[in-house]
Structure formats: structure tokens, C-alpha cells
Amino acid sequence: xxxxxxxxxxxxxxxxxxxxxxxxxxxxxxxxxxxxxxxxxxxxxxxxxxxxxxxxxxxxxxxxxxxxxxxxxxxxxxxxxxxxxxxxxxxxxxxxxxxxxxxxxxxxxxxxxxxxxxxxxxxxxxxxxxxxxxxxxxxxxxxxxxxxxxxxxxxxxxxxxxxxxxxxxxxxxxxxxxxxxxxxxxxxxxxxxxxxxxxxxxxxxxxxxxxxxxxxxxxxxxxxxxxxxxxxxxxxxxxxxxxxxxxxxxxxxxxxxxxxxxxxxxxxxxxxxxxxxxxxxxxxxxxxxxxxxxxxxxxxxxxxxxxxxxx
Length: 311
What we know:
Layout: E1 2-7, H1 13-22, E2 24-30, E3 34-36, E4 41-43, H2 46-54, E5 58-60, H3 66-74, E6 79-83, E7 101-105, E8 113-114, H4 117-123, E9 128-135, E10 145-152, H5 159-183, E11 197-198, H6 214-224, E12 230-234, E13 237-246, E14 261-264, E15 267-270, E16 277-284, E17 290-291, H7 292-297, E18 309-310
Parallel strand pairs: 1-2, 1-6, 2-5, 6-7, 8-11
Antiparallel strand pairs: 3-4, 7-9, 9-10, 12-13, 12-18, 13-16, 14-15, 15-16, 16-17
Helix pairs in contact: 1-2, 1-5, 4-6
């Protein structure tokens, strides 16, 4: 098959590499270079870097506009494949490839349509994750499904870790569908069930609420790690939560009041509405990452009371 591939983050790389090994990639479409790090250095996307390594031509575009459509259509591709590009494919680009477009989406559609399916599934406490390959249509993630596969949620996995697993499994699933489209055996069926939606996360989604029970707090931490990142407020100061564990994993499960802090051999216990959790690594505002125990030793009582984590 002669393919056009659209994608941007690292989660798209296993599919790009798998398809490049099995088919002809006529063009790769990805988002423009973005400023990263404290110095805001313009940096190409992971897909742009991988495409260069593979010797594939690249279009960098913030929007799939008329110019992108013209360039893609001129290549006369058989099929378009999209994995987390970060923008919408509309007509006439949808119809440019002979067989249209397929999309690898990291959920069991129609569950968690939208930008952050893995993150939202973890925050919601779902017991399984999944990958679906479907036909792209104008409505968001609503096309007929060629294949989908479910996976148990890896114990304690953050969104980054779960997404890395799904990216590998999804690459194999996508390759199967592309092969089926090539030989005419692929069949897509309409989605059934009530859709749920996975809106993009922002910084406020990363704020941990210690008045919730431990399962809910830990689920949110997993879902927002590493982007947009978990954080808490300690005596008016924002503190990034880089590592959080269940207290029973450290051998210290004594409950505390919600937001109360106490040092333990595994880090710093923090109370929730049920069991305590353990901060293991943090980054206070204006400082670098550090062990939570070291951070706690630097805290001072406020008005004669011990410091607390809150909202």
C-alpha cells in the first residue's frame, strides 16, 4: 500500500515504524516544531525525528489546510493512517486517499472519544484499556471500527506507561487492518453503545484533592502523569508531585487526616479521606526535583502548626 501517515507524539512511533517496514510511506504529516524546556528551544516532534531517521519526506503543519490537501492528493496515496496527529482531517483531505483514512485510537470505542482517552480512563478508574482502529469520518472518533483489542490496566501504571504499552499493541493492530484493506478482507462495523468523551487535560486537572479517598487521588495522579502533571498546594505554594505510591506498598499504612503530612521511611505520608498515600518525589516551585523526604525536612511550621497539603 502507498500510505500517507499523520502523527506527532512518541505514541505514534511504533505504528509509523511498523508500516514503514511493510508498506510505502509517500509522506509523513506532523505538527510544527514546538518550543520545549526552560529555554523554549524549538524542537521537532518525535514523529518528525523518526521520519528523518527513516528517510521519509515530511510536511509540518499546524492545520490540515488546502495546501496540505493539495500536496497529499498529488501523491495519489492508497490509504491515510493517523495516530495522535493533534488536528482534524476534513474534506476534501478525507477523500484524497483511494481508501480514505483509518485512525488508531487508544480506547475501546465508543468509550473515551477525544484527545485524552488513556488519561481519562485511568482517572475514572476503568479496569481495562484498549486500542481501536476505525474509519475516519467528520464526526469525532465516530467511524466504523475495523478492529479493537482490550487490555487489563497495568497495576500502578501511569498514563505514560500505559500509553507506551498501547502504542506497541496498537501498531500491530493497525498493521493487521492495513493488510486487510490491501487484500480486500477488512470489514468495519458501526460502533454500538453510549459514547463517552475524553477532553484534553489542562493544569487544573492535575490538582490532587486529598479530601477524596485514596483510590480516587491515586487514579488522578496516574492519569495526569506526566502531562499535564500532578501537583498539590502546601501552605500556599505549588508543589509538583513526581512520585506517589500507596502507603501499603511502603509498609506504613497508618491513616492521617486529609492533607496531613508526616515523614515515613518511604517518603512523606499524606492523608486522604481513606488510606494514606506516600509522596516519594516532588518539585517545589522554583526548585529542581528532589526526594520528598528531603523536601519535607525543609518545611517549617506555620503559626505553630505543622504544614499541610491542600487545594
